[in-house]
Design a protein that fits this description.
Structural class: alpha+beta
Shape: globular
Number of helices: 16
Largest sheet: 7 strands, antiparallel
Radius of gyration: 29 Å
Oligomer: single chain
Strand order of the largest sheet: 7-6-5-11-10-9-8
Length: 505
């Protein structure tokens, strides 16, 4: 590869004009759609329609001219002397972005549906620093995207001195290259086993908002259901209506979740090479990201009983980033078998997460008491609404039964959830485990901890408890109501972070 490639001003693909044009028109439509809808619904005259058509033609022409000029003004190149990637853009005001090689966090690709039609890619350069924004080239060919990405990442690795331990790991460990693809059936399994409650809440809110319209549209069907349930007693009718409503909403929520999963994760492919992990996914917007082990901050592995039955796990990988970029740098990878999770962990972590040294901390029962107290609030609100208003028309015994069942379920859930919470220290890692239905295991390497916050509310002092937060460049790991004996291990963690020479930028 030519080390001086892209040293002169480059433009996007000529197809970028169409991309800019469509994007500009879309922005105009978002601004003026309400005005257009009002105009059409108000019954405009023939003269008004003619002038409107002329205006649309003029706006379209001006947008096309703007797109062409913007294309001409959008240039990028590599300044090898200054060791920077430079991008200049703008018509009325010029924006110049110069990114030093050592500030480049990652380079990845993404494609919208239009970009796939015109066969171009978006190349995104993610940078370090709280004030620095990402840089994006929205129309570049596949060959240029791959070549430019390779040049920039190579330049960065040459600029930033890699830790000797990391180099030894890559040299001594022979990671076998592998590829994992998530097929149609796996996506379907993810859809039917994920986010029931979220889907239910969305569907319920939607149904409530358009209840009158549904009632009118399905009037005959609703009457048939009412006739069927009329043969049962009052309490059985109520139970029947609730069960039917729950089943309908559940089916709708699962359908919505399946659609969301297919849009977001269609074509999900994971490919491991010697020094990186490549992840590609997406139907509406196809994204391709390269993950380097040193940038890994937090890794969350989650599943639930249904997914476990299917041998499905979800990995969420948090990468080093600025505060404003945290959410963007959290990559979710669902549909992983346990064997794939093991492969990913063994590659991303420089040391084995298994260690001879293990110390486990659990929260104090004071946290359980607090959780149960908060869980009782909905029951108290329900009782207050029933007693003081006429919004809930139930017999006293029915209220007692419902409240009793809720309280029993809430206490049971909180007890088992409390027992699942634990914080584990090993020689090189910190792990947090939690969850009753959705179980989650969070892992981070000790040397990547930037700082630690320890707080002790007044009501914790008598029981010698503290709340603790471990801060990383990829987010925080929190653990509440733990014995202050943990402070001894905090000193060890800070020592590991201080003496480590490993680079995670």
């Amino acid at each position: 590869m030519n080390s001086e490639a892209y040293n002169t001003a480059q433009r996007q693909s000529i197809a970028g004009i169409l991309l800019i044009f469509v994007s500009s028109l879309y922005k105009l439509v978002k601004i003026f759609w309400a005005m257009g809808a009002y105009l059409l619904l108000s019954g405009p005259s023939k003269t008004t329609l003619i002038y409107t058509a002329i205006g649309l033609v003029v706006v379209t022409g001006l947008t096309l001219i703007y797109s062409y000029v913007y294309y001409l003004k959008f240039i990028f190149y590599i300044d090898y002397e200054r060791e920077e990637f430079v991008l200049e853009k703008g018509i009325f005001s010029t924006e110049n972005s110069a990114i030093p090689f050592d500030k480049i966090q990652q380079v990845y690709f993404k494609r919208s549906i239009l970009q796939r039609v015109i066969n171009v890619y978006s190349l995104v350069i993610d940078t370090a620093g709280s004030n620095q924004k990402e840089v994006e080239i929205k129309a570049i060919s596949e060959n240029d995207a791959n070549r430019l990405s390779e040049i920039l990442l190579k330049a960065k690795s040459e600029k930033v001195e890699e830790n000797q331990l990391e180099e030894e790991r890559l040299e001594t460990e022979d990671h076998e290259a592998w590829t994992h693809k998530v097929d149609f059936l796996t996506l379907l399994k993810i859809g039917i086993s994920t986010n029931y409650l979220r889907g239910l809440s969305l569907v319920f809110a939607f149904v409530v908002s358009i209840y009158n319209r549904i009632n009118t549209y399905f009037k005959d069907r609703i009457e048939d259901v009412e006739v069927y349930f009329s043969q049962f007693s009052g309490i059985l009718q109520s139970i029947g209506y609730l069960v039917l409503l729950f089943v309908v909403l559940l089916l709708l929520s699962i359908t919505i979740t399946i659609i969301e999963v297919f849009i977001k994760y269609y074509g999900l492919k994971i490919q491991q090479t010697k020094d990186k992990l490549e992840v590609e996914m997406g139907l509406k917007t196809n994204t391709k990201v390269s993950l380097q082990p040193r940038r890994l901050q937090l890794m969350r592995i989650s599943t639930n009983p249904v997914q476990k039955r299917f041998n499905l796990y979800e990995a969420q990988i948090s990468l080093s980033s600025s505060e404003n970029e945290l959410q963007k740098n959290k990559i979710k990878i669902p549909g992983l078998g346990k064997e794939i999770v093991i492969k990913i962990k063994s590659f991303l972590y420089s040391e084995s997460s298994e260690s001879q040294f293990r110390t486990t901390f659990r929260p104090d029962k004071l946290l359980l008491f607090r959780k149960i107290s908060l869980a009782m609030v909905p029951a108290l609100i329900f009782l207050a609404v029933w007693y003081f208003t006429a919004l809930v028309s139930l017999q006293f015994w029915a209220v007692l039964v419902l409240a009793g069942l809720y309280i029993f379920a809430a206490i049971t859930v909180q007890i088992f959830s409390f027992k699942a919470r634990k914080l584990i220290f090993t020689e090189d890692f910190l792990q947090k485990k939690r969850g009753l239905w959705n179980t989650t295991e969070e892992t981070l390497e000790l040397f990547k901890i930037q700082s630690i916050s320890v707080k002790q509310p007044i009501w914790y002092r008598r029981r010698n408890l503290v709340n603790i937060v471990f801060h990383t460049a990829g987010g925080d790991l929190k653990f509440y109501a733990v014995s202050n004996d943990i402070l001894r291990y905090i000193n060890y963690v800070l020592y590991k972070a201080e003496v480590s020479k490993q680079n995670w930028m």
